[in-house]
Amino acid sequence: MFSGIIEATGRVLAPIDPSAGAGGGRLGIGSVPFAGELMAGESVAIDGACMTVVESRGDAFFVDVSRETLRVTRMGAFKAGDRVNLERAMKLSDRLGGHLVLGHVDCLGRIDSREISGNTVFFGLFVPAPHHRYLIPKGSITVDGISLTVNQFRDLPDQQGSLVTLAIIPHTLAVTSLGDRQVGDRVHLELDMVGKYVDRFRDVDGEVPSGG
After folding, report:
1. d(CA 105, CA 46)
2. What CATH number labels 8-88?
3. Domain spans in the chain, listed from the N-terminal domain onward
4. pLDDT digits (tens, 9 = 90+) for 89-146
5. Where are the Lumazine-binding repeats (predicted)?
6. Fewest CB within a 10 Å sphere: which of 9, 49, 63, 142?
């Protein structure tokens, strides 16, 4: 479990090597300030995708990326030097500064616009169907592992999705990879966990069944 509060950024050491790893490939992340504290088996979210550490050396750690993860994320397109967002799994005693994040990427979104107003950057983010159904005004969304607030959104039936407006402050741009994102870039999205559970337990009449 994660909170969506980015702990640090790291740099991709090299594109995924398909000759190593469990059916997918091995990914190394360097320039990580807490790499020396990591032990094999620990969970680290890389751009919002929960991964298991298999090795750490110096300021780098390595994970095995499965074929399924390659299918639902853009990790297969990572290039050497790309900056990625990192968060270690929460402790039960931690403050929940963002929101409840599982580290399971639901889909890829797309940056459709980027505009500057004062000291804030406004991103237009396209969220594809059916995942757009979990959006609510001022609700939470995880973008590349970052807990963000849905400023506003509008449905785009002809494009089968919704366009979300995100207001990004200078601090977030500085300490995460979101400052690197440009129009057309794909990003990892995880929608609100609570909304997904409520949706799953609705009955055929659209009501939430009672317990007991």
Report:
1. 11
2. 2.40.30.20
3. 8-88, 107-200
4. 988 888 888 888 999 999 999 999 999 999 999 999 999 999 999 999 999 999 999 9
5. 1-99, 100-202
6. 9
Q: C-alpha distances in angstroms, 85 versus 4, 33, 145, 150?
A: 10, 12, 7, 20
CA angle 44, 86, 181 (to 5 degrees): 140
Helix (H, G, I), strand (E, B) or coil at 193: helix
| pLDDT for residue 21 is more than 70 | no
- Token pair, residue 189, equals 């999205």
Q: Does the pTM exceed 0.85?
A: yes
Matching fold, domains 8-88 and 107-200: yes
pLDDT at 211: 45
Place of tokens 């995100």: 166
Q: How far apart are CA 12 and CA 31, in angstroms?
A: 9
Q: Cis ω on the peptide bond leading into residue 130 (within 30° of 0)?
A: yes
Give me the chain's average pLDDT, please.
Answer: 91
Q: How far is CA 175 from CA 8, 57, 107, 117, 155, in A?
A: 7, 23, 24, 19, 30
User: Please, are residues 106 and 143 in contact by the beta-carbon 8 Å criterion?
Assistant: no
Task: Give one word for 151, left, alpha or beta, with left for phi > 0 and alpha for psi -120 to 50.
Answer: alpha
What is the model's pLDDT at position 205? 53
